[in-house]
């Protein structure tokens, strides 16, 4: 029925099959490359998020240490007992009263 040199066993033209196989191979390579890029991007994102959390914690610690330093200097210069329970980093002044900011 079909000449075996131009058609495969299903009757499809061999050139078409070879072209489709080539496209399939290229698509498979592209998918593999994109999956690798995605994995690398996710790993980088995790690394960046970890670094950001570390930096946020560092900034908070530095802020609190700065507050404590000023509190100690205030105690020295103005002879104020900073161990007094009225000093609280979690409170702020509003209308001449201490209110919780948390």
Describe this structure in words.
This protein has 102 residues and is mainly α. It is built from one helix and two strands; from the N terminus they run H-E-E. It has a two-stranded antiparallel sheet. The protein is rod-shaped, with a radius of gyration of 35 Å.
Computed CA radius of gyration, to the nearest angstrom: 35 Å
What pattern of helices and strands is seen along the backbone? HEE
Mean pLDDT: 85
User: N-to-C terminal Cα separation, in Å?
Assistant: 86 Å
Strand content: 5-15%
Task: State the total count of DSSP E strands.
Answer: 2
Biggest sheet: strands side by side, in what order? 1-2
Count of spatially separate domains: 1
Main sheet specs: 2 strands, antiparallel
Structural shape: rod-shaped
Structural class: mainly alpha
Unreliably modeled segments: none
Helix content range: 55-70%
Number of helical stretches of at least 4 residues: 1
Give the gist of this structure.
With 102 residues, the chain is mostly helical. Helix content is 64%, strand content 8%.
């Amino acid at each position: 029925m079909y000449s075996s040199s131009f058609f495969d066993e299903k009757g499809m033209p061999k050139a078409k099959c070879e072209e489709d196989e080539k496209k399939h191979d290229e698509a498979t390579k592209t998918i593999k490359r994109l999956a690798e890029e995605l994995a690398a991007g996710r790993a980088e994102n995790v690394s960046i998020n970890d670094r950001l959390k570390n930096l946020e914690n560092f900034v908070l610690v530095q802020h609190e240490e700065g507050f404590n330093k000023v509190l100690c200097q205030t105690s020295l210069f103005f002879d104020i007992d900073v161990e007094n329970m009225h000093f609280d980093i979690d409170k702020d002044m509003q209308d001449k009263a201490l209110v919780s900011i948390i």
